[in-house]
Q: What sequence folds into this?
């Protein structure tokens, strides 16, 4: 199918063409996930899949069959840097996010389906090495932001308990404080904060955990912030950490309905004040 075929579907509010079925056409959409053409990958592949999910074009059996295929994609080229394989990984994450989002609205999946996504997503968060946001001519890679989008729907899923929520927040702290030769500039901090806020709104995370979790930003496991301005990779991690905490503080202050808001505001501010390189 050419792009015009898909754009006509879009122009007709994603109605499935007569004589066709969404699951059959989805096989072609899946071939676009790793495309370096941003129109095919994003405007056609992702947006069509998301709209067909919303229009209930897939059965639970279809979704269960898609999950392992998408999860396997997260391993393709994992560990590479600045290669086109990132598009397959990052957009497979988005497809998974749409599946989980759909399950959150309409119960379709079993516990093992959600946990297969949850386990692989945490591993992927730790192991993805390509930090690029927007790639000239090829469009958005945005692996970290897309992973945050998936985590934000996972933490609201009925099957995740306090333990899993704590694991997600700990994984975010570990990722953002890890030395790196990159400063995230494309809204990754805001997307990660959505995960934190969504997890907090489950009202399963107590003050003791949140205090301990915030301490991981001022005292990372593997290094110290003192003197990090002399080491570019640690300095970049410091800036990424500070940006995340600032974004979190802003969201806490703006959200009057946030669970445990006053406590979080005080603790996040204290964490920012204790985040020092000197």
A:
């Amino acid at each position: 199918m050419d792009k015009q075929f898909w754009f006509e579907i879009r122009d007709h509010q994603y109605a499935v063409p007569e004589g066709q079925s969404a699951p059959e056409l989805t096989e072609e959409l899946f071939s676009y996930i790793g495309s370096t053409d941003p129109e095919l990958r994003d405007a056609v592949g992702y947006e069509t899949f998301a709209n067909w999910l919303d229009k209930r074009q897939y059965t639970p059996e279809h979704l269960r069959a898609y999950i392992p295929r998408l999860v396997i994609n997260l391993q393709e080229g994992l560990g590479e840097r600045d290669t086109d394989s990132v598009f397959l990984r990052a957009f497979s994450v988005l497809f998974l996010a749409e599946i989980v989002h759909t399950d959150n609205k309409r119960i379709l999946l079993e516990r093992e389906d959600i946990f297969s996504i949850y386990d692989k997503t945490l591993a992927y968060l730790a192991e993805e090495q390509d930090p690029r946001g927007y790639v000239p001519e090829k469009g958005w890679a945005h692996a970290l932001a897309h992973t945050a989008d998936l985590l934000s729907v996972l933490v609201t899923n009925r099957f995740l308990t306090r333990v899993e929520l704590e694991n997600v927040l700990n994984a975010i702290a570990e990722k953002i404080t890890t030395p790196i030769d990159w400063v995230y500039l494309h809204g990754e901090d805001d997307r990660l904060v959505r995960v934190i806020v969504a997890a907090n709104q489950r009202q399963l995370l107590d003050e003791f955990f949140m205090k301990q979790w915030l301490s991981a930003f001022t005292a990372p496991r593997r290094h110290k912030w003192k003197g990090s301005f002399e080491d570019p990779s640690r300095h970049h991690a410091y800036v990424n950490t500070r940006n995340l905490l600032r974004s979190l503080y802003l969201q806490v202050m703006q959200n009057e309905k946030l669970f445990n808001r006053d406590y979080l505001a005080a603790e996040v501010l204290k964490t920012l004040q204790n985040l020092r390189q000197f």
